[in-house]
Amino acid sequence: MKSEAEVKQTLRDWIIKAAGGKISQEQLQNDTPIIEERIITSLQIMDLILQLEKITGKPLDVEQLKPGVFRNIDSIYENFCGENGDEN
Amino acid sequence: MKTKGEIDFENLQGLHWHKMGQSSFTGSLLELFKDLDQYFLRWAAKWKAQEYYFPPFLSAAQMQKLDYFKSFPHLITIPVVLDDAQDNLKAFSEKAVNPQGSILLTQLSDVRQVLTPAACYHFYDELEGSNLHQAKFVTTRCVCYRREKQYTPLQRQWAFSMREIVCLGGAEEVKTYLAEFEDLLQQFFQAQGLPVKFEYATDPFFNPASNPKYLMQKLDPVKKEMIYDGQLSIGSLNFHRSFFGETFSIKQNETPVNSACVAFGLERWMYMMVRERGIAPEAWTL
């Protein structure tokens, strides 16, 4: 099992690659709003979900998704990978 | 007097319900329709919104830019005309309608239009390629067409009237507009004693689970509906971010504008007024 820092770094790398130059490693903080600021588009959300399923090794039910869970790297970790991860 | 919920809307005085999903009305009901729209126009005037009249058709090519046909194929109504070749018209004229009332179409001309599914689309089409110097507020009322599985008088219709008040500008101006409008509506519903609550909602996408736009709306709600009595959406507040600004190249200071619309379904407001206040028109005054 990867550590919290490793998982967040994996997410950060994926987001920066998906954003295609919209944001740099230095600019993307754990609390940077990735949807609100349109760093990730609606088309990339599907890929992000697949990426999360890969990280957690669990399928993700899109109908159960709630507002705010993809707000930033911290909230993604908290909702899908942290102690409360199973709730979503 | 009948109590709330027992009103027979199909036989409401002054209303003619067409089972295909349309209402005609006259007399006090028509006055209610006009009064409600005047009320919406008074709200539009708070933002000095410029009023527009729009025709019923929208270009399919413009709607395609919005991915409309992928997202809402189940709602769309398409106007068609016959190919004007003499033999084609003759064949049609000889057997145009079957005994069940269905039109027996012959060869069609190219179909390039759709009937308006929501009033505000006309503005983005109208303002395409423009550069705004300041936030722009506009309003229109259109008959809108949305196919549904079943229809109910005033509540769910194929053809219905929608008043929209739209703001185009910078993100902060647009967000402020929506917040102020929501406050105004909250106060209005409270003052009038109308049981309307605001709830986050998503648009009625086709195959929602496989549509990234639906997913995005779930994760980052941009639509709030005005839900009457826990059962019927009578309007909505929608934040589009820069979606229309980018798609139609509408800019402010060379940056794609953000936009938001506040929409009211007039027949649904009529339903609410009659159901809440009873069938005596004197009680419909706002």
N-to-C order of helices and strands of chain A: HHH
> Under CATH, the topology of the largest domain in chain B is which?
BirA Bifunctional Protein, domain 2
**Helix count of chain A, per DSSP?**
3
Q: Low-confidence stretches of chain B at least 5 residues in length (pLDDT < 50)? A: none
Question: Which of globular, elongated, flat, extended, rod-shaped describes the shape of chain B?
Answer: globular
Please, could you describe this protein's structure?
The complex is a heterodimer of chains A (88) and B (286). Chain A is mainly α. Chain A has one domain (4-87): Non-ribosomal Peptide Synthetase Peptidyl Carrier Protein, Chain A. Chain A has helices at residues 4-19, 42-56, 73-81. In chain A, helix 1 packs antiparallel against helix 2 (42-56) and helix 1 (4-19) crosses helix 3. The longest helix of chain A has 16 residues, at 4-19. The radius of gyration of chain A is 12 Å and the shape is globular. The two termini of chain A are 19 Å apart. The model of chain A has no long low-confidence stretch (mean pLDDT 86). Chain B has 9 helices and 14 strands. By secondary structure, chain B is α+β, with helices and mostly antiparallel strands. Chain B folds into 2 domains: 9-77 and 117-284, 2-Layer Sandwich (BirA Bifunctional Protein, domain 2), CATH 3.30.930.10; 81-114, no CATH class. In chain B, the strands form 4 sheets. A 7-stranded mixed β-sheet of chain B has the order 3-7-8-14-11-10-9. Chain B is globular, with a radius of gyration of 21 Å. The chains are: A mainly alpha (88), B alpha+beta (286). Chain A binds chain B through residues 35-36, 38, 41-46, 49, 62-63, 65-70, and chain B through 200, 209, 212-213, 215-216, 218-221, 241-242.
